[in-house]
User: What shape does this take?
Amino acid sequence: MKRNVLLLNQDYQPLTVCSMERAFLLVFLNKAELLTEAENDEIRTVNKTFPCPAVIRLYRYVNLPYRGVVLTRQNVFKRDKFTCQYCGSPKNLTLDHVIPRSKGGKTSWANLVTACQPCNTQKGDRRPHEANLKLQQKPHRPTYLIFLRDHSGSMRKEWQPFLNY
Assistant: This one.
């Protein structure tokens, strides 16, 4: 029972992904409504059977003041799909400042990329073109919705109507 469930706010905006157990509890305690059931899956007790949730919606609105993606090492790795942005290697990954901090580069979504140790060493304290390296994609700040859809571990087909705006 390791399936994830998409949790929506009262206004159908995606909030987060939670465990099946938590989602079932929210529905059972009448704090959320079941919008979509998981196909070919159910929760059984001794004398009852319940549908497994795939998408649930809270009955009460939850106000979230900040809905951006926090800049962390793991989130940069997730954005870059755990591959070096110079050579595509998935091994020995580190973070690299595209414009080095010593040359005025900031620690931001637009200046951080995932790089393997050899490429990071080759680049050193230079810009990519100075080290004969080329970025596979331009670094960007992911939106919360895109990040939730692409990096929640598993995108389920039941979630698509709620995540494709």
